[in-house]
Design goal:
Largest sheet: 7 strands, mixed
Distance between the termini: 55 Å
CATH topology of the largest domain: Aspartate Aminotransferase, domain 2
Number of domains: 2
Order of helices and strands: HHEHHEHEHEEHEEEEEHHHEEHEEEH
Helix content: 25-40%
Bound molecules: D-malate
CATH superfamily of the largest domain: Type I PLP-dependent aspartate aminotransferase-like (Major domain)
Structural class: alpha/beta
Strand content: 5-15%
CATH class of the largest domain: Alpha Beta
């Protein structure tokens, strides 16, 4: 008898964003007039077209594929050398950070990499995650059998939850107890908080002392405007020995539909075998890529490379300015509406406290029903997200202005 993976049966309901999509669809079918004025600020999906430098690179790469002499079949599973080199140079070495070209692994998305990384980590690790948190970190550990069952609040047994609240600026300090693997995301999805240098130093110190590994999700680093905030965990001395970093072209280059990202696995990063011997993870991740992945398409990698040209960099900057302009408007609108607002300064997400006595899903229903705006209920990111909602600033300027206006019309 074929058996299924029972761990999947522990998962709570659907993945957050499809669940929101389902509820919005039901609402729109029942309210066709309201559906016409619907504005989506739920999922953090970009809205603006790809930068012209990317479009030019895509066209050129497509033309190359039309000619026998420049046609490409399978590429290297880890990414073409020229893209790995452009990434390592521009994102790290030009900034004084020590990352070698072959420590960069190009992939089709950070979401996939955040889940896939579990392939090369042991099943007995004690895992720490922030609460609230990007649900992928939790669900992939559930799927891999690293957790117990979920309790009524949605917290899974065996995971160590690190509460993020106003009193710690939504950035958790290292726990008093021992953990082996820690997920950190800065700028943070969903709270929009950023970790300071001191906070990251404390985490790196903890990881080195505990022989733990930090899985650092820096998908939103391009949104950092404060020069004191680190863009990479490798800005912290010692991080090469204890951290893997995930980066994405989704939110800087607008590649959510194009699909390209990368993961840095330093060669100095070691983890213990069952027998307690320390071995590097780099060859394991390399082996995994070669076995389970055939690489990102040539066309898409050329598009990603274009983001590092002078025009590409200027166009990415303009995109970020656009979305952060939206974030400023949304922050202001929510504040004027009398709501308490966090984030949205070094991140494209605004984290809003629900009015007293209103749950996250009640806020979702009210904002959808009365303002015809889709937000994300904070409880979907973890039990400590209850009583909050997230507004995404990925939108047109006109829509951001309209959402800011409609928020102020709501009577709670
Ligand atoms: C979000 O809305 O949290 C993001 O779209 C998640 C993601 O990038 O996968």
């Amino acid at each position: 008898m074929a058996q299924l993976n029972d761990n999947y049966l522990k998962l709570k309901a659907g993945y957050l964003f499809p669940e929101i999509g389902r509820r919005v669809k039901v609402f729109c079918e029942a309210n066709p007039e309201a559906a016409k004025r619907l504005i989506r600020c739920g999922i953090g999906d970009v809205t603006e077209p790809l930068p012209p430098a990317v479009i030019a690179a895509l066209h050129k790469a497509v033309d190359e594929m039309a000619v026998r002499s420049s046609f490409k079949g399978y590429g290297p599973e880890q990414g073409y050398d020229w893209l790995r080199a452009a990434i390592a140079k521009n994102d790290f070495r030009d900034k004084g950070l020590d990352v070698a070209d072959d420590e960069v692994f190009v992939s089709d998305g950070s979401k996939c990499d955040c889940g896939n990384i579990l392939d090369v980590l042991g099943a007995k690790n004690k895992i720490a995650i922030s609460d609230p948190v990007y649900p992928v970190y939790v669900d992939t550990n559930v799927m891999a059998g690293h957790t117990g069952e979920a309790n009524e609040a949605g917290a899974y047994g065996k995971l160590v939850y690190l509460p993020c609240k106003p009193s710690n600026g939504f950035v958790p300090a290292p726990p008093k107890k021992h953990v082996d693997v820690i997920y950190l995301c800065s700028p943070n999805n969903p709270t929009g908080a950023v970790a300071t240098r001191e906070q990251l130093e404390a985490w790196v110190k903890y990881a080195l002392e505990n022989k733990a590994i930090i899985l650092f999700d820096a998908a939103y680093e391009a949104y950092i405007s404060d020069p004191a905030i680190p863009h990479s965990i490798y800005e912290i001395p010692g991080a090469r020995e204890c951290a893997i970093e995930f980066r994405s072209f989704s939110k800087n280059g607008g590649f959510t539909g194009v699909r390209c990202a990368y993961t840095v696995v330093p060669k100095a990063l070691m983890a213990a075998t069952r027998a307690g011997e320390m071995k590097p993870l780099h060859p394991l991740w390399n082996r995994r890529s070669a076995t389970k992945f055939n690489g990102v398409s040539y066309i898409v990698q050329r598009a990603a490379e274009a983001l590092y040209s002078d025009e590409g960099k200027a166009q990415v900057k303009a995109l970020i300015e656009h979305y952060m302009g939206n974030a400023a408007l949304l922050r202001k609108g929510a504040k004027k509406a009398g709501l308490k607002v966090f984030g949205g300064v070094n991140a494209p997400y605004i984290w809003v406290k629900c009015p007293a006595g209103v749950t996250s899903w009640q806020a979702f229903d009210k904002i959808l029903g009365e303002a015809n705006v889709v937000i994300t209920p904070g409880s979907g990111f973890g039990s400590k997200g209850e009583g909050y909602f997230r507004i995404s600033s990925f939108n047109s300027r006109a829509n951001a202005e309209e959402v800011a206006r409609r928020l102020q019309e709501l009577k709670w």
